[in-house]
């Protein structure tokens, strides 16, 4: 793996040198200084190979942080270690400068010994390192703290410390989605996908274990029944609440999880089991492309009544339930660059022509579901012989911005359970909050045009 880590100043002087392998010598250190730092030509690549030795470097101002090795290693892994190393150093003494490195070189040696062991990455989380390496390099003295350090370093829950206590146990879960759409003038979705995140804020005492389930297609549509009695009970309760009908499932194309999630249980039971970090964190990311509920439909009509007169009519329909209300609705309608004047008529919201952007911006503070609003605009054009710009503007799609209080992918939280065997509280004592928010990503509709 990594044979050594060196920190140079802008002159090429070695301020910190930590060698992990015997094949790294002083000649190896000087080779990088002569060939890279003192080289007259600009450095084009962060990877340099000199005499069968690979050098990986990153610069922080006038400071060079270099990792070298004589083995064939994964370059992406080495740069990830260097970036984590930079983050840890910044957490301890702020910006990395020549002066800060000289003032904290003893601390840097201690950190390098913990981050890398014989050249292999060990601990790169600053939260864990700060529990037993303080800024002055003083280690924890009490036996209880030493036990906490050992469990965090060697155990599976390094992201959470023991002894956390709250008067009120609360758990917040936000399903945040970004809807992307490209629709044809005929109303056909050319491309549509949803990128989502599940963000949690946990204010729980002790070391609780949480179980989170969603209406994933592999759970709902799977012929085999849930493997645990608890999952079977929750399945029957969900069916009763929905009148015994068929549950809508979500086909998730791909997803990634936080390191606290136990992937083995997710593969066997399709339930997300984890011990949450304290505070806010991102539990998972996902992406889906099937059965997306589109919140809005834009129906544009562009007509060239005369050679210098264009009529634009845009109909905006909200397709979600009438009980819901969308916020921050904005429609951006492009118009030709040779526009001399615009007359806008709309009964809802406010519309304004922005000359610098050649766009009509139609804003509605809120809009309920199953509603329809219209905007008409009469555009006067300056006479011009260059029709290419006008035709090019006509091809620019109409875009939208919005925020709706539901998940457009159809994802639902089926259950959220908290178990804490050591402390004196149960799942019923935890206050839980679940919220769904979908925002517009690249939400565009192509328009008809005969000019």
Automatic annotation (TrEMBL):
What do the Gene Ontology cellular component annotations say?
A: clathrin adaptor complex; clathrin-coated pit; plasma membrane
Among Pfam families, the record links this protein to: Adap_comp_sub, Clat_adaptor_s
Q: Name one GO biological process term.
A: endocytosis
Q: Give the matching SUPFAM superfamilies.
A: Second domain of Mu2 adaptin subunit (ap50) of ap2 adaptor, SNARE-like
Task: Cite the entry's keywords alphabetically.
Answer: Cell membrane, Coated pit, Endocytosis, Membrane, Protein transport, Transport
Organism annotation: Geodia barretti
This chain belongs to the protein called AP-2 complex subunit mu
Protein family membership: Belongs to the adaptor complexes medium subunit family.
Describe its membrane topology. Peripheral membrane protein
Q: Where in this chain does the record put each MHD domain?
A: 168-446
UniProt entry tagged with the keyword Protein transport: yes
Q: Where in the cell is it found?
A: Cell membrane; Membrane, Coated pit
Q: Which InterPro entries match?
A: Adaptor_comp_med_subunit, AP2_Mu_C_sf, AP2_Mu_N, AP_mu_sigma_su, Clathrin_mu, Clathrin_mu_CS, Longin-like_dom_sf, MHD
Give the superkingdom in one word. Eukaryota
């Amino acid at each position: 793996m990594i044979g050594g880590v060196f920190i140079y100043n802008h002159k090429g002087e070695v301020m910190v040198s930590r060698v992990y392998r015997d094949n790294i010598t002083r000649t190896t250190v000087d080779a990088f200084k002569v060939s890279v730092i003192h080289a007259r030509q600009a450095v084009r690549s962060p990877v340099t190979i000199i005499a069968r030795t690979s050098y990986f470097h990153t610069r922080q101002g006038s400071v060079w942080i270099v990792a070298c090795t004589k083995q064939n290693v994964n370059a992406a892994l080495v740069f990830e270690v260097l970036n984590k190393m930079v983050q840890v150093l910044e957490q301890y003494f702020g910006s990395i400068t020549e002066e800060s490195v000289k003032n904290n070189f003893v601390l840097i040696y201690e950190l390098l010994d913990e981050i890398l062991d014989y050249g292999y990455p060990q601990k790169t989380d600053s939260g864990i390192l700060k529990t037993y390496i303080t800024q002055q390099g003083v280690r924890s003295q009490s036996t209880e703290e030493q036990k906490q350090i050992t469990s965090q370093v060697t155990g599976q829950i390094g992201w959470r410390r023991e002894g956390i206590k709250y008067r009120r146990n609360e758990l917040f879960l936000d399903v945040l989605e970004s809807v992307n759409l490209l629709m044809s003038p005929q109303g056909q979705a050319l491309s549509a996908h949803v990128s989502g995140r599940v963000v949690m804020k946990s204010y729980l005492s002790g070391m609780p274990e949480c179980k989170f389930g969603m209406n994933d297609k592999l759970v709902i549509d799977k012929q085999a029944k849930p493997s645990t009695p608890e999952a079977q009970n929750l399945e029957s309760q969900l069916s009763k609440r929905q009148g015994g009908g068929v549950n809508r499932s979500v086909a998730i194309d791909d997803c990634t999880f936080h390191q606290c999630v136990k992937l083995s249980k997710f593969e066997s039971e399709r339930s997300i089991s984890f011990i949450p970090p304290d505070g806010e964190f991102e539990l998972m990311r996902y992406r889906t492309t099937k059965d997306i509920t589109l919140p809005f439909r834009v129906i544009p009509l562009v007509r060239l009544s005369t050679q210098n007169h264009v009529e634009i009519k845009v109909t905006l329909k909200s397709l979600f339930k009438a009980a819901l209300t969308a916020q921050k609705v904005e429609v951006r309608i492009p118009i030709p660059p040779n526009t001399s004047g615009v007359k806008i008529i709309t009964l809802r919201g406010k519309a304004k022509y922005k000359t610098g952007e050649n766009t009509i911006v139609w804003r509605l503070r809120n809009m309920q579901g199953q509603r329809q609003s219209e905007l008409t605009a009469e555009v006067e054009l300056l006479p011009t012989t260059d029709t290419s710009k006008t035709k090019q503007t006509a091809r620019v799609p109409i875009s939208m911005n919005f925020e709706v209080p539901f998940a457009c992918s159809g994802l639902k939280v089926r259950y959220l359970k908290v178990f804490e065997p050591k402390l004196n509280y149960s799942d019923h004592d935890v206050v839980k909050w679940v919220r769904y928010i979908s925002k517009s990503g690249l939400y565009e509709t192509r328009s008809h045009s005969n000019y």
